[in-house]
Structure formats: structure tokens, C-alpha cells
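Ticket reopened. Same input as before:
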Amino acid sequence: MLSTLLYVILAILITTTLIMVVRTARFQRSKGSVEQIEGIPVDDQQVAEHLAAAVRCRTVPVDASGTPDPQAFYQLHQMMAETYPLVHQHLKREVINEYSLVYIWKGSHADLDPVLLMAHQDVVSAEGDTLANWTYPPFEGCIADGFVWGRGTLDIKNQLIGILEAAELLLQQGYRPERTILFGFGHDEETGGNTGCKVIGQILAERSISLAGIVDEGGGILAGLAAGVRGPVALVGVSEKGYLTVEFKVHGEPGHSSTPPRQTAIGILARALARLEARPMPVHVRHIRPLYHGIGMAAPLYLQVAFANVWLFGPFLKRWLTAHPEMNASIRSTTALTIIRGGVEDNTVPPEASAIANFRLLPGDTIAVVLWHIKKAIKDERVKFSPVEGKYNEALPVSSSDVPAYKGLSKVIGQIFGDVPVAPYTMLGGTDCQHFVKVCNHIYRFTSLVMDERFRGLEHGTDERIPVEAMGKMVKFYAQLIQVWGTKEMV
Ligand SMILES: [Zn+2]
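Engineering reply: fixed in the latest deploy. New output:
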């Protein structure tokens, strides 16, 4: 009897181990075999000067709703026209709502769907108490200590200049794409893109143009972002989390604090918020399986085994990943309580209390699902809640990492940056890409830049800067991407 039981246990163990080994072997991907290339010859210093000239155009919105400063944009447009004469001679340029720009580089095969390379022209301000802390002023476009300094050098005038510089150099060589290549330079990304890229997306849809691929800002070659992986990984954003701001309101009995009701509006609201925070949205470990699949052999063996066998190691992965804030946000829709209001006098019970929570939605969790979750978590009819007008959008569709557009992009990353694993992920923040989901199924967010610890938090922060040599590399990247995506095959 005992021996039969032992045999059964042994059989289960052996079977489980076998399944694990087979699944791991199938999950593992060897390092890419793409050969690194020298790329188009680039004068780093000259590119740095062009970026510095773009930084000097203060394309900061003049108010919170994103009203552009006409002078700054005309100055930038002028600079672009003077610096890139061949681009302006050979490409068709369309101006949308005064400031946004679309360039059309006609391919020799008119039947192929075009591709779109994007960058926004606007930047955030550098005002307030941070201004004094800049090593070099944010809008002077200083080149010093091997860097170009200033607002927009990382977000994302580097990309704007990178694209234009690459096109100019290719035109000097007489290059012409097979596939039409579009450049899309919005002017109000930082404030939602409603008069820039939103309109560009609508115009493309009206003209019945569908795009074979888009590359916009995001991701990059990052170290230490994927938990457990130390080396650099090229992360390509294949989706963006959704956004939902919800307002909570409780009406209570007002009165004097000497004779309070059993429960005040503040008490009811506080209890509801505490319940909401204590009940986060469910975890979806499988959502980041493609990320670790892309990282492949660069991840430690135990992680390869675990992600290949989520059926077995799901609970372990869940506990481990939720301990890292960034990974936690990558595997679930997050809840953040951000504003609370109620009461003005210390001796008066207020008639109302309200609060705001901001949710970021994982693809698959819709706004309706989150609202239902809130209702279940709070379980209190006295607490009224609803989405705040204009402050919500669903997560964006996940673009495939098994199509020519993605493979071509991965190849170019390998050609320019060497043997670095390329992996898909969902961006936690938003980009202008949201305005193109109707005209493109293959949308990728990748900024061709090695972002190590030194650059963390510099975007939108103090001392934003980019190494001169990295700017040169970005030009090589775009020149190569244009040549690869510009073909019929895209790979
Ligand atoms: Zn940006």
C-alpha cells in the first residue's frame, strides 16, 4: 500500500518535472543572431547642434489647456526648414491646425501601406523652484560635458531631430523608399494631443489610409526595469494602460460638532476609500509573460522556468512581482487615491465629503469592469461615484510581436545596439499613439536610447540632457529603420 503511494508520488513528480523542462525549453529563446552594423555615417557634433537649436524654441504650452505659443512653433518650423533642405524639397509637408506637421515621403510602390514615424514638438515647462537647480538653463541649448542640455532633449525633440536628420542624410545618398514613409509631429502631446495627433489620425481615417506600422516615443534600452534582470533589455511598448479618474461623493447630515450624527459624510467616505484601497484589482501574471519570453536567456534560469510554467509558479510570481511597484503596475490595474475634500470648520459637521481616485487600466480590464469592482469593494449605497468627464480612456489594444513590423524593428535595434534582447511591454504612461488605433494595428513605442540610472526621472525633470554620442546613434537607428521599414517586406 505504502509503496503504491510512493510510486504515485514519484510518477507525479517525474511528470511535473518533465512538463516543466519541456515548457522551459520551448519558452527559452536564444540570443538574437542579428549582426551589428556601422550604420550611416553621422557627424555627432552637428546633430547635437541641431538638437540644441530645437531646444531654443520654447514650445511650451502657455496654459494648462495646452494653448501653443505661435512664435515658438514658427521658430521651430523655420529652423527645421533651414536645417533640412532636402527633406523640405523632396517630402510633401502638410500643416494641421497651424502647428502640427505631417511629412509624406512617397514610396516607389504606391500600393503598399505607409508607415509612420512620430515625435511631438511640444515640451513641458521648466518653471518654478526647479529652474534655479538646472546646471545649464533649460532653453539655451547648451552643449557641454559631452551632453546636449535642456528641456526636450529626452522628451522628445531628440526623436524629432533624429528622424529629420536621418531622412536628410538618406536623401543626400539618393535613397528612395519602396513604401511611403510618413512623419507625424504633433504639437500638443503633453496636454492630450486633441488638436494635433487626434486630428492627424482623423485625417488618415478620412483618406482611408491604413498604416503598416508606427514608431513613437516610449520604452528604450533599459537596465534594471524588468524585475530580476540586471543587464540591458530593449523594451518596446506594444500597448498603453488605460486611464480612469473617478469622483466619490457622500452627502451626510450637517450640524454642530457638539451633537454629531453617528456617522458623518467624512466617516462614510473614509471607510469606503479604505475598503477600496484594501481591495486592489486582480493580478494578471500572464500579461508580462511575453516580456520575459523576449528577455529569454538574459533572465536568470529560475525566472525562465517560472514564466514558462505559470500554471505551477503563478502564486510565487504573483507574490514576487507585486513587491516591485513597477512590476505590480505592469500586472494589474492600479488604484491611487489622489484627492480628498470635506469640511472647513473644526466645529462644524460638513454636509458633503468628496474624493478622487485615479485608476490605470491593464489591457483587458475595461472601464466598466473597474466601476463594477469599485461597487463591489465599497458595498455602500450612500457613496456615489462616477467617472470624471474627459478623464478616462480604455487601455490601448496590444500590438502583436509576431508580425513583420515588430520583427523589422527588433532587427534594427540589434543592428544598431548589438546583441541586446528585445521584449514587448505595456507602457504605464500615455503617448500620442492613442489617436492612431483606428488606422493601425502595429503600433510600437520605442525611443532608441540607452537609458541607465543616470537618466531616471530627467524627462520632465531638472537637468534633462542627452549624451552627444547617443544623439548620433539615434540618427543611425532611424536611418536604418527607414531603410528596413521602407521595403515591401519590412524586415
Ligand atoms: Zn513625450
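The longest strand covers residues 383-393. The radius of gyration is 26 Å. Please confirm and we'll close it.
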